[in-house]
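Incident log, entry 3
Record: von Willebrand factor type A domain-containing protein (390 residues)
Problem: checksum mismatch between cached and fresh output.
Input:
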Amino acid sequence: MNKLICIALLTFGTVSCKNNVKENQNEVIITAYATNDLKNSKKKTKDVEIVFCLDATGSMSGLIGTAKEKIWDIVSELAQSGDVDNLKLGMVFYRDRGDGFVTKQISLTTDLDQVYSDLLKINAAGGGDTPESVNQALHEAISDMKWSTKANTYRTIFVVGDCPPHMDYQDDVKYTESCKQAAKKGITINTIKLGTSCKSAIYHFKQMANCTNGEFMQLDQNASDIVIATPYDDEIYKVSQSIDNSRMYYGNETEQAVNYNKKAKSMEVYEKSTKTSNSARADYKMSKSGRKSWMGDKEIISDYAEGKIDLEEIAEDELPKELKGKSKTVLKTELEKLTKERKKKEKQLIELSEKRKQFIKEKKKELSSDKASFSEKVVDVLKKQAEKKQ
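Fresh output:
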């Protein structure tokens, strides 16, 4: 089958949609206008929420592969480009009725390692005919995800694929209705048509984008991208893995169980991802939003370094298992040492990431390609729209 990605991000202000519906042979004409209830606000973008809706049918292997390799580059580029406090990511994978599944969701969350871990489990399969359950995927992305209602937030959805939505399913929520709901929530829908087959998809994808003043693009069938390995990837892998491995959590039994499970998900990323994608992950983790979500809640080294905890008030049974049985004096000495070690590694990681970015920049000059890659196109749209919403 053919590919389709849906990215959802929080956007600044609200967008209204006026729906002039003219249905003729499955054609729907949509006109849109934008209203910004924060037009007098001088606040900068603070939060971002992203949901990818990916067609996971058999012919989507190129798209799924690109998502697995480049998602960290996309969020890193966005996080580094502006003042982003919190970045959430979610996904909706879809096929069609009669396939192994119609849709699968990954909830919108700041825990990007959890999202990535679930993404790595997805493979392209099924399909074999057209159209696809685009309508259902878009509806779920808009209605099921827990979008923030904060004013200083950028929201968007990217629908990416090559096949049109089923307009013949009587019990489906059509994209014309979903677009109106997106507008009410201040979500901008962008669409990318992949490949040259299923030309009828172009019309529908354009209409989806038009309703919320989003962008429509056409790219190659495989959502091709550029992957550049660098001499710094191995060292970045080692340093970032060491930082992740040093994470220790305090709190009650339930809190520790939840946080150590998150740590386990992070460690899985090293086993299952490529060195190049891990380098992009490390770059994101050192951004403002990445740092906030990297360690999570009640990580004792980071909380101690930031002065958030009083060691005298932490009960023995609430200490991390690695630090139990130590006197308060020894515990303080140990945490001072661990804090210094982590800061040293973080500094090293920043330096390595900068060298990596410079290496990639020079290599791209050598390639001198006039065609922007899939991830570059997505990042360009995100940056442009986020800037307008400030």
